[in-house]
Structures
1.
Amino acid sequence: MTSIFDSYQLGNLRVSNRIVMSPMTRNRAAADGSPTPSMATYYAQRATAGLIITEATQPSPQGQSAPHTPGLHSDEHVAAWRQVTAAVHANGGRIFAQLLHAGRVSHPEIAGHHPVAPSAVALNAELFTPRGLLPAPVPLVLSTGEVKDQVEAFAAAARRAVDAGFDGVELQGASGYLIQQFLSSNANQRTDAYGGSITGRIRFAVEVAEAVADAVGADRVGIRVSPGGQVWEIVEDDVPQLYSTLIEALAPIGLAYVHAQATIDDDVLIALRKAWPHAFIVNPGGKFGPQHTDRAMADHWLASGADLVSFGRAYIANPDLVERLRTGAPLTESDRNTWYGGSDAGYLDYVSYQH
């Protein structure tokens, strides 16, 4: 029987186990988006994961979602990320950069740019900015030509990621950000080739995947999805058909993996797994679901067809998570007050389990 501790061939990488560290925003980058030495230590501490996927990293200044999130749109960012990738590789780990464009989930006070989106549909929400919580503005509508510019921004960021030493990149197509805004039936009210029918609504995601695969090689690229997920007020009509059509369109590109959040019934995810010809990662906890991913949930999904399983919150307070799962050691609970921003407290001071 397959075990989460078995090695796996993921695209062009041999990973040491099937445990993935899920992307988690921690807001510890410098004000200009450059990764810090503390970030290098944080990821290196967790390098026993088969694969680390970094926190959300903006491919352009306009794509920034929150203060102190890292970027991959300048030479300075590339140089600063090298300390992170070198530290992870020195500890035997593998690491992908997650590329996230916030779309409408942004504010001029955060990014210095007015947010853009498929349509002029604002969030009914307040966003955390350097000046505190502020209402989300109505986003600017991307023209057809500007949509192409966003596609190229993802490709350029992927090139920088490889230059910075990353083993690959993950496209954030989940959790209510720009790619999922195009997939949605409420945030996307377009009538051009990027809206309307399911074929139109998946077009942006497919074009981004194609461009990034062309830029760095398909076997260095994954995509994260949250079928039916409702984070940031996303609504998706006919979820099974939408995602089966997306999977069918992505399959010929040859991406290394699909990373699916468990945001819909298991049978829908299992059907997507069966339709997808490459590696399939499941994040059982969804987006801040009621349960942390644990060993039993991981074993369930491996038995249901997943190739790898990602763990999110458990990795905050358990840098040695692989060993704790292997030995059955208890998991430390993290302090939610230190999840986002702040000092190294609640970031670097969680220790390995002492028997």
2.
Amino acid sequence: MDRPNGIERVLREAAPHQIFDALRDLIESRYGASQVDLLVADYAMTMLQPVGVLPHTRSPVPVHGSDPGRAFGAQEPHTVRNPDASTVTVYVPVSVRGDRHGVLSITLPDDGGGPDEALVEDFRACADALAHELVVAERDTDLFLRARRAERLTLAAEMQWQLLPGRSCARPEYSVGAQLEPAYAVHGDNFDWSASADDLTLTVNNGMGEGIEAALLTNLAVNALRNARRAGLSLADQAYLADQAIYGQYQGSSYLATLLLRFDLPTGNVEIIDAGSPRVWRLRAGVVEAIELEAQMPLGMFEDTVYTPQHFTVEPGDRLFFVSDGVYDALSPSGEKYSVRALVSAITETRLLPATQVPRAVLEKLLGHRGPGPSMDDALVLCLDWHGRQAEA
């Protein structure tokens, strides 16, 4: 059976908006499945939304406390038998390079033995092939992007989400997860990353202002940083050129706080520029501590600002947190700020979760503190687990 190659060929030949339809037809004909569904994670990462022609789709499924949510969270297949209907359903995560897109649900007749390991691996191959094609298809169709929306995005949020590289990624040396809140009305907070053979460049941005103005500022900053990075410039020069671009546009009336980091993958050495940025926390051997840095001017505040990198080292097992001002400044209904103590407690309580799940869990604790009222500011949480590079034999 030409499992992986055959699946990929079928998906490549399908129109972008029909890739899931093509995969569903293949699974139903090849494996005798009675139902095949694709559920994609919404922007808040709290719901799994069925893909279909809106508004004629099934109801969304919560990530927490559901069978497909279990597969999504653990990133492992999960099998559920339904004796009343004589069926068995296999939920398989749809992910690419650590970025979690959703879950593939496949329902089969139950012969009493359940799906064997080889069959589950076939379904994983289907889900993996679909995940890669989803990334490509989103350039040409809105079907899957629309399915992700539990509610309408503001225009500012639309602009911010389109800037992101993803919400998680993984390599042998590290794994990263990040989340923005409020997901459907985010203003100026943003993050970006890019990896090569021996380094990872990471930026965490906290833009001033609200709505479209904040989104435009962040768009300018992120693209200026990418332009400098892709030209092969040093971290200091990336900050300098982005600073010049923002100052040239706004003349100091608007500026952007950012963290710029470059991780050397073989050694764990980190070069960092703190441009009035979100704070950095490290969890090492169960102890949470802030990484103290020399704060430099935000990007675009003054003309011809010179930035000086600082350095520290990460060790295997370290977990780094990057948290924007919207976390510290969040107010409870009684007006009490979300304290550093509460943040440290949240970091400690989530220490056993994988990096991809940590930002959502921390933000849930923040929302519990803030209550149901509207947010006064964006909140960004990014978590990086450092595994280190294994020495070659």
3.
Amino acid sequence: MRFDLLTLFPEMFPGYLGQSLLNLAIERQLVEVAVHNIRDWARGKHKNVDDRPYGGGPGMVLSPEPVVECVEAVQQMDSRPSRVVVLTPGGRRFDQRIAEEYSEEQRLLLLCGRYEGFDQRVFDILQPDELSIGDFILNGGEVAAMVVIDALVRLVPGVLGDEQSNKQDSFSSENRLLEFAQYTRPREYRGHQVPEVLLSGNHPEIAEWRTQNSLERTRQRRRDLLDGNEQSPQPADNS
């Protein structure tokens, strides 16, 4: 899978791309990531990419020319079909279902906004997906793009050491519940014990405990995920 990141601040990405699971996925050529500076497509001596909004108002708006021409040029850099995604507060809310949907794509172009956003003609011409990671405002789309990549990389075959891992994650298509509580050594810490059933070696009982624990955690924290139906899918067995 290939990600193309289109941004005015490419210097934000090297540290992120060089760490942890994503870096390993890139090294193993399971994932490709290319970063492009929108300003490279700006016109004029000063390479301006924004201007004051027509009609007045605060801030600056990203101009259509450098953005549209950057996207079109980047699309031509690889023969694989690309899906253009704009990170914007006005987009549909990103969740695990959308992550699974996007994981089927060969290539995503993630367009990161800044300032007061994009000139509307960017949307009219490119017809991109519009995506939001939540009901709050960030300084730009770069952090949101990192969130999207982090969620998708886990779904690329071969990236995770255990292919069952992402199926047990909270919100996955095979498990709409919150994930069950996890424990490791030591068996006791500051008076808090590991549940005995997890030490029993009885895998059917462990699976049942995890199912009930997931249901209870979901009921307490995110009852909306149950959709009025307590008979939600069971978490995958980890035996």
